[in-house]
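[Automated response] Your request has been received and processed.

Submitted sequence:
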Amino acid sequence: MELEELLETAMSKELFASVKQPVLMLYYYKNQKEQDDVVKVDAMLKMFEELGSTQKEKIALPKTGNHVIGSYVTSKDIKSVEQAMQGFIAERIK
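Generated structure:
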């Protein structure tokens, strides 16, 4: 309950707008039926649009099959997670 209250009170449009660091948002989304069931994809996308960063990228990963996309225990496609992260970093450390 405390975490939910924190999210509802602290995670605001103003807070998201204050984020100026580069952001890579990776999330599980294949289609309307097969998508993250822990965090609403619509909420993630809304938050992403409200970020103040000029260097931001969002990538849907349809093959991961789970909210925890970076875990070898739960993810079915760690390779795509690694590639997305490496590409994002490489673009910014030229």
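Summary generated for your ticket: The chain has a mean pLDDT of 93. The CA atoms of residues 20 and 53 lie 4 Å apart.
If you did not submit this request, please reply to this message.
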